[in-house]
Write a structure and sequence with these properties.
CATH topology of one domain: MetI-like fold
InterPro entries: MetI-like, MetI-like_sf
Order of helices and strands: HHHHHHHHHHHH
Main location: membrane
Helix content: over 70%
Number of strands: 0
Low-confidence stretches: none
CATH superfamily of one domain: MetI-like
Radius of gyration: 24 Å
Number of helices: 12
Pfam families: BPD_transp_1
Organism: Aquilutibacter rugosus
Strand content: under 5%
Family: Belongs to the binding-protein-dependent transport system permease family.
Structural class: mainly alpha
């Protein structure tokens, strides 16, 4: 209970610092949510500022926004006046979670077997080839991978749609674009861990007793070799969340990343802050779950 309360307190402080920093940085950026090429009449501008509390001083705006957030209200959207930020987040979050979850499952489902295969053949030509391909996957950014996938599968081959949302065919290319770098990271981490684990003294002793390679792998090597991959899940999920901003823009997906980009470009303060708070809460929750999973798999962490 003491550990849980300490974790919750750290999470609240982290989210408060994140929200505060984002709030004041947004206000410090040039321009405003209602600045257009053709300025509105002064009375209309004053009414809009009063409606969205932009006529208050900066500390008053901050305290009013904190009070609303404490009551679960993320405020109205400046860019989408017919929707609140709560409604936009509720619509976008399942889309981003579906894309990110499928991308991470694909990365684990391909990266772990490739890493095991390469780690058991460390130093061989297959190991070098797989790690070379993985290095290419890491080095190519998502804003290059996503248009290339559109060009190949949507324009040239015409197998999949170039963008949009609503059918399973719209999910394939965004998930692949999000998963490719993570497949490469997962394969490299699993390969290094498996190679180190397979050369451990206790496995050499078990091998000398006549245990089969399959038994050594499944019963003795796999669990300790997976520990670095479990530790990598936190940055992997964060990478998926941050990478979704690029991928959702390219494929026109109505997810959290797209709303964040549009909100930042249009100075939609409440929308950006709502997305930041939601993503920050997800990252904190992910870290807590991954730490618990690591402690469950590694007795040394439980004793610590």
């Amino acid at each position: 209970m003491k550990r849980l309360l300490s974790t919750l307190l750290e999470a609240l402080i982290t989210l408060w610092l994140l929200a505060t920093l984002c709030f004041f940085l947004l206000r410090a950026a040039p321009g405003g949510p209602f600045d257009t090429e053709k300025a509105a009449p002064p009375e209309v501008q004053a009414m809009l500022e009063r409606q969205y509390r932009l006529d208050l001083s900066l500390p008053e705006q901050y305290l009013a926004w904190l009070r609303d957030v404490a009551h679960g209200d993320l405020g109205p959207s400046f860019q989408y006046p017919d929707y609140s930020v709560n409604q936009l987040v509720a619509q976008a979050l399942p889309v981003s979670m579906l894309n990110g979850g499928l991308a991470l499952l694909l990365a684990l489902g391909i990266g772990i077997p490739l890493g095991i295969f390469a780690g058991r053949r460390a130093g061989g030509w297959t190991d070098r080839l797989l790690m070379f391909v993985a290095g290419l996957g890491i080095s190519i950014p998502k804003f290059v991978v996503a248009p290339l996938l559109v060009l190949l599968f949507a324009v040239i081959l015409k197998w999949l749609p170039a963008g949009g949302w609503g059918e399973w065919r719209h999910i394939v290319l965004p998930v692949i674009a999000l998963a490719l770098p993570n497949i490469a990271y997962c394969a490299r981490i699993m390969r290094a861990s498996m190679a180190e684990t397979m050369s451990a003294e206790y496995l050499q002793a078990a091998r000398s007793r006549g245990y089969s390679e399959w038994r050594l792998l499944t019963q003795h090597a796999l669990r300790p070799a997976l520990l670095p991959v479990v530790a990598w899940l936190s940055p992997a999920l964060i990478n998926v969340v941050t990478g979704s901003a690029v991928v959702e823009q390219v494929f026109g997906i109505p997810g959290m990343g797209r709303y964040f980009v549009q909100g930042a470009l249009n100075r939609d303060y409440t929308l950006v802050l709502g997305v930041v708070l939601t993503v920050g809460a997800l990252i904190v929750l992910i870290n807590v779950v991954v730490d618990a999973l690591r402690a469950q798999m590694d007795p040394r962490l439980r004793r610590g």
